[in-house]
Amino acid sequence: MSNLYCVLKIKDKQYFVTEGDIVKTHPITIEEPIQILLLRDNEETYLGDPVVENGGVEISVIGVNRIKTDVRRYKSKSRYRKNKSHSQEFSILKIIKIGSKLKGVNITVIKEDEETKEVLVKKTAEKEVKEVKEVKVDTLGFSTRIITALTKNKINTVSQLADLSKDQIIALDGLGKKSAEEILNKLGK
């Protein structure tokens, strides 16, 4: 057994992890807190009350997958057959680093898309976003009409939209007065 290990609480489950472990959990979002309940760093053991303060873990989200489960019912000689299925999502996490010199839980999420690559890095313990690159306009929750108008005007990312002035947004083709107001409200202009 390694000298570096910890017990993490993700949602309502606890996981005993060491460096390099790969953990399958329920689907997690960046905002969800991951708590460190126990941390062992070489000779010292830190026990949380309820959470460890002097230590941290660096976690990388490798991916989010689905498991499809089929449920089949069958009764012989009666022609009774029922097929049902459901898909359940789960996240795959890799523990990169454990140590008492780290602060909080650092989560690195890497999402690869065909057009753009998004890299979101967030410290969940401190609730601050370090870096956001090229987030698509689709993720802001605009109506279909607004998204179509923005893509026709070749505005695909939030940074491109934020660079436009108020007058430029109002003058875009395919956007009416209400649509322009909705965009300006979301951007806080």
Describe, in short, the structure shown.
The chain is an alpha+beta fold and 189 residues long. The protein is built from 4 helices and 10 strands; from the N terminus they run E-E-E-E-E-E-E-E-E-E-H-H-H-H. It starts with a strand and ends with a helix.
Provide key terms for this protein.
single chain, 189 residues, alpha+beta, DNA polymerase, domain 1, 2 domains, six-stranded mixed sheet, 10 strands, 16% helix
Description of the structure:
The chain has 189 residues and is an alpha+beta fold. It folds into two domains: 4-128, no CATH class; 135-189, 5' to 3' exonuclease, C-terminal subdomain (DNA polymerase, domain 1, Orthogonal Bundle), CATH 1.10.150.20. It contains four helices and ten strands; from the N terminus they run ββββββββββαααα. It has helices at 144-152, 158-162, 166-170, 177-187; strands at residues 4-10, 13-18, 22-25, 34-41, 44-47, 56-75, 80-99, 104-112, 117-123, 128-132. The strands form two sheets. A six-stranded mixed sheet has the order 3-7-6-8-9-10, with no helix packed on it. The protein has a four-stranded antiparallel sheet with strand order 2-1-4-5, with no helix packed on it. A hairpin with a 4-residue loop joins strand 8 and strand 9 (117-123). The termini are far apart. Mean pLDDT is 78; it is low at 111-133.
